[in-house]
Amino acid sequence: MQQDILINWSPQETRVAVVENGAVQELHVERTLERGLVGNVYLGKVSRVLPGMQSAFIDIGLERAAFLHVADVWHRQEGGEAPMFARKNEPPVPIEKQVFEGQALMVQVIKDPIGSKGARLSTQISIAGRLLVFLPQDDHVGVSQKIPQAERDALRTRLQKLVDDQVSGNGGGFILRTNGEDASDEELAEDIAYLRKTWAGIRQAALTHPPTSLLYQDLSLLQRVLRDLAGEQTQSIRIDSREQFVALKAFGNEFMPAAAAKLQLYKGERPIFDLYSIDEEIALALGRRVQLKSGGYLIVDQTEALTTIDVNTGGYVGARNFDDTIFKTNLEAAGAIARQLRLRNLGGIVIADFIDMLREDHQAAVLAEFRKQLARDRVKTMVGGFSQLGLVEMTRKRTRESLAHMLCEPCPTCQGAGQVKTARSVCYDILREVLREARQFNPREFRVVASPRVVELFLDEESQHLAGLSDFIGKPISLQAESAMGQAQYDIVLL
Length: 495
Description:
Its cofactor is Mg(2+). By secondary structure, the protein is an alpha+beta fold. It has helices at about 150-165, 185-210, 220-230, 240-255, 255-260, 280-285, 320-345, 360-375, 405, 425-440, 450-460, 465-475, and strands spanning about 5-10, 15-20, 25-30, 40-50, 55-60, 65-70, 105-110, 120, 125-130, 130-135, 140-145, 175, 215, 235-240, 265, 290, 295-300, 305-310, 350-355, 380-385, 390-395, 445-450, 475-480, 490-495.
C-alpha cells in the first residue's frame, strides 16, 4: 500500500493529510494558538484535593485547572530522589496521603482538554524519542507489544546492554518503539543519550522555575510527522513551505534520517491539498451524510456520550437478490466507517448500525472486514460482535478533539440542537408572552421585536390572532423586524 504525506503550512496553522492509494485516510490540524498539550511537562501546583473523588486539581497555568486521578499518581519509593518521583503501588494509597494543597508537583499531560473538561495529568513522566520511550522514574527495559513475541527477548537483551553501557546515564527505564525494531546499536545509543539529555534539562528547569511553569513541550505536528506518521510504506513527504522544509530537514537529518530522506519541497502552482481534493474531503467529513460508491450511504451523528453511524442501502439495487444487496452494502460500509473514524478522529463509544443480515456467515464476514480495516488505525480500538439488536459496539481511544470540534462551533441560532422552532410556534409563544405581560403591567403599547419571518407571519396568516389579542387586552401591539435575530429569538418591549 502506497502512502503519501502532504503538509500544508501557514504561520497560523499546519495541516497534514495521510493519503493511501489516492484516498485521504487521516487529517491532522495544529493551530499555533491552539497547539495540543499531550506530552508537555509542567511544574504544577496542587489547588484542590478531593478525597471523595480520589482526585486532585492541579494549576499548570492554563485557563482551567487540570485533573489528576489517584490511578495516575506514582508515589515516592524508599530511597527516591524527591516527591515528584514515584512508582505504582497496589492497592493505591489514598490521594490525600500523597498530595496536599499548595504542593509543587511535576506532572505530564496525558489527555488534552476536551469540551468543558480540563487536561488529564500523570505524575509518571515519559519522553518519546525516535526509537525509544524514556521512563526516568523507572528502571524497566521493555519492548513494544506490537513487535512479534519471537523477537522481543533478543531486542530486550540488546537494549538492556546499551542502557547498562552508559554508566553516566543515572538510571531510567526504556521501551523500544515499533520503528526501532530494525535500528542499529549506534542509533539506539544516540536515542538513549538524547532522551537522557532532555530529561536532565527538564530536571534543571524544575529547580529554577516557579510553579505553573512549562518545563518541556512535546514536538510540533511537523516534527511528529517524521517521528510518528512516516514509516516504511511512506513514499514521500511533501511540504509547501521552503522555510519549514529546511528546518524540518535539519531536524530529521539529526534524529530521523530515514524519514528525512523522503522529505520533498512542493513547488507546484496549485495548492498542495488540491492534488487529492483534500479540502473537499474535509468539507464532507464535517457533514452527516457519507456517500458510498455503491449508492448506499452512512449517517454519522456525534453526541457528547457516543457516536452513532447508520448504514443505508440508498439507491443500491445491483446485487442478484436482497440479501446480497445488504451484504455488499455492509461490506463496503465496514471500510468506510473505519476510514471516517480516522478522518474525523472520532473517539469514545461508537455504535455502528449495519443493515440487518439474516445469514450468520454474512455477519461474520462483515465483522471480519470491519476489524481488518480498524487494524490499520494508529489509535487503539476495541470491537465487540453483533448484539441482539444487530448493532456493533466499539470504542476508539480519545486522544484529541475530533475534527468537527476543532474546526466548528455550535450554531448561534439553534445552539447546537440542529433544529429551531417554526415561525408559527414562535408567533404563538409571543402571543402567550404578551398576554402574560399584560396581566402584570399596564403599558401604553406592546412592541414585538422579532425576526423578519415571524413578523411577516404576524402580518399575514396570524394577523387575525394578533388583532384579537390586542382587542382582548385593550392595548395596541406593534411589530418591528430585526434581521440580526434568529427565528426563535424575540423581545417584547413595554412602551
